[in-house]
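Why should sequence recovery work at all? Because a backbone constrains its sequence more than one might expect. Tight turns favour small or flexible residues, buried strands favour hydrophobic ones, and helices have their own preferences. The token representation captures these environments compactly. In the example below, the structure is given first.
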């Protein structure tokens, strides 16, 4: 490595690269930006000079000239929450397809979600558009106004008048589950929901309740867990003495598995005595021979759709929209016809 390359305190200029390669600065710029109108011998000479000198393109200057950073902002809470990782993969994939980088900020989940605060924090970064993941309803959701000039998409089931919202259809998820149980003759269907602050839990519970009420069927007060199998087991132990119920709809797979274990420990067979359905299809990588009927979301598509809408948002005439991605019912053997 040359002494010039080791001297990191003195940034190498494009003029120095041009001088070393015996070309103009404009030619160096063409090579750096991947333009095709440069001969292969010249391109090779410029790249060798860049390597020898340790030149790094000034993307800040390029951004000032073009008015764009080619970077998308992603703000979220609980990066390790189920669903976030698959959504992030979709976001990264879609951004990469159009030559964008992704700047990710994880907000402190110990403080209430504020869209205004998240937006202000992201506005200070070099980004062209913003996606905010909202697993809980922000306290300032109704009055939130996106930053001027910053296209903003919310990952949420709630509609917003000024921002496009994208999400898996959590209400439609329950419609799928309930229609499936109805088709097997079930009418006494109990529900084990997630935490009341969860947006997903709110819409899944609403879908369950509406499905029963639309058919004039009894709505027994739901039990709530915290998404864990242990909380599902506690709910299942309480439900085991309910001799009228023939099915349990649990708001995620972990709680559904807890319900199944509790019912079996109490002497009730699944699915012969009680059918059980979960949500997420999250167990196949951790448990063998999964038999739980569940609902699968296309979280990768959720992420890609959010990026597509965020980048479209700065186009003239763009109007905010509401996009819901349909889930898929995964039929296994935890549901049977009513006896």
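From this structural description, the recovered sequence reads:
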């Amino acid at each position: 490595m040359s002494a010039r390359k080791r001297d990191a305190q003195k940034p190498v200029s494009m003029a120095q690269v041009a001088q070393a390669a015996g070309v103009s600065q404009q030619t160096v710029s063409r090579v750096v930006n991947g333009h095709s109108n440069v001969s292969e011998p010249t391109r090779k000479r410029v790249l060798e000079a860049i390597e020898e000198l340790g030149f790094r393109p000034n993307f800040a200057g390029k951004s000032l000239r073009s008015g764009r950073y080619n970077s998308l902002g992603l703000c979220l809470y609980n990066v390790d929450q189920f669903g976030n990782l698959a959504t992030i993969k979709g976001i990264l994939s879609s951004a990469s397809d159009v030559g964008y980088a992704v700047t990710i900020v994880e907000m402190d989940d110990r403080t209430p979600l504020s869209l205004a605060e998240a937006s202000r924090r992201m506005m200070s970064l070099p980004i062209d558009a913003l996606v905010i993941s909202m697993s809980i309803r922000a306290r300032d959701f109704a009055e939130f106004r996106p930053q001027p000039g910053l296209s903003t998409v919310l990952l949420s089931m709630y509609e917003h008048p000024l921002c496009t919202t994208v999400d898996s259809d959590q209400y439609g998820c329950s419609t799928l589950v309930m229609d499936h149980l109805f088709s097997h003759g079930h009418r006494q269907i109990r529900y084990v929901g997630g935490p009341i602050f969860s947006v997903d839990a709110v819409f899944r519970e609403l879908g369950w309740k509406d499905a029963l009420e639309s058919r004039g069927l009894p709505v027994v007060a739901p039990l709530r867990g915290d998404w864990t199998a242990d909380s599902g087991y506690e709910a299942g132990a309480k439900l085991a003495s309910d001799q009228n119920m023939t099915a349990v709809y649990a708001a995620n797979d972990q709680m559904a598995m807890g319900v199944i274990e509790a019912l079996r420990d109490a002497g009730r067979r699944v699915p012969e005595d009680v059918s059980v359905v979960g949500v997420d299809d999250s167990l196949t990588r951790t448990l063998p021979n999964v038999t739980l009927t569940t609902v699968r979301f296309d979280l990768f598509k959720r992420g890609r759709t959010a990026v597509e809408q965020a980048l479209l948002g700065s186009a003239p005439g763009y109007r905010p929209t509401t996009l819901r991605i349909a889930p898929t019912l995964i039929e296994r053997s935890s549901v049977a016809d009513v006896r």
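A few observations help interpret the result. Residues 199-214 form the longest helix (16 residues).
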